[in-house]
Amino acid sequence: MALIYEKKGKIAYITINRPQAMNAFDPETFKEVSDALIDFRDDDDLGVGIITGAGDKAFVAGADIKTIIPWLAEHSLYWEKIPTIMRGLELYKPLIAAVNGVALGGGLELALACDIRIASENAIFGVPEVTLGLIPGWGGTQRLPRCIPHALAAEMLFTGKPISAQEAYRVGLINKVVPLAKLMPAAEAVANDILKVGPLAVRAAKQAMIRGTSMTLEEGLKVEVDLTFPLFASEDLAEGRKAFIEKRKPEFKGR
Does 28 participate in catalysis according to the annotation? Predict the structure, then answer.
């Protein structure tokens, strides 16, 4: 299988499983990722997703150049029809990228579209499309300058040269760097921290954050208010308030 999609408790695990091709996207894998993300979005029993790559060398090494470029010549609108978190899919459940190696091109763009990024010490990050005569087409030119300093984003986009996990951490591209053996436990620890709090509140916070990014401050503050007031009528807030008063852990239901 080119993709492994598993559900364990409230966590969804999406693993790109093409280690023989450094987990590079081919058309079939891209579609499978889309299907898995839609299922994750629509499954009310799932609260957090973790995306990673199979093996110990690559997260996703971009698109499979041998298959993608000639295929796109005949299917130029294909990517626009397949919704993913890079473009076209609204997903307000948290996603964690567990970057276990090379994250280049579409791999970095996939990680950028996640909310939290944890990397192993052997990870590298880059957008090498210009070395092929292309530019990133899955959000790299837009999300990278919003995530790291403009000058560094420009250097990466214009030269195609990658940066190390340590440099990515220094500039704020990723949340933390850990040894490879501790990568998935670190990602799961963050996922479990998220699962302890109110799920409706987490999704509202993500929605406010994402929508507000493209707005003025005043517009974003209005979105924040609009998303806050429905929470006052939720069972989760009543439970959270009661648990706080009773000095116990809340049992949130997502209602």
Answer: no
Listed residue (102, 110, 113, 119) closest to 162, CA to CA: 102
Predicted confidence pLDDT, tens digits, the chain (255 residues): 799 999 999 999 999 999 999 999 888 888 899 999 999 999 999 999 999 999 999 999 988 777 776 666 665 555 567 888 888 889 999 999 999 999 999 999 999 999 999 999 999 999 999 998 989 988 999 999 999 999 999 999 999 999 999 999 999 999 999 999 999 999 999 999 999 999 999 999 999 999 998 899 999 999 999 999 999 999 999 988 988 998 889 999 888
Exactly one of 28, 80, 109, 219 is catalytic; which is it? 109
> Phi and psi for 74 in degrees, rounded to 5?
-105, -15
Whole-structure pTM value: 0.93
Which of 80, 129, 155, 251 is the catalytic position? 129
Residue 246 annotated to the active site: no
| Distance in angstroms (rounded) separating the CA atoms of residues 103 and 112 | 10
Measured distance CA(199)–CA(194) in Å, rounded: 8
- Rounded Cα distance, 67 and 244, in Å: 55
Q: Give strand pairing partners of 51.
A: 14, 97
Residue 122: helix, strand or coil by DSSP? coil
> Coil, strand or helix: which one is 4?
strand
The torsion defined by the Cα of 132, 105, 41 and 39, in degrees rounded to 10, comes to 60
Domains of the chain: 3-195 (3.90.226.10), 199-246 (1.10.12)
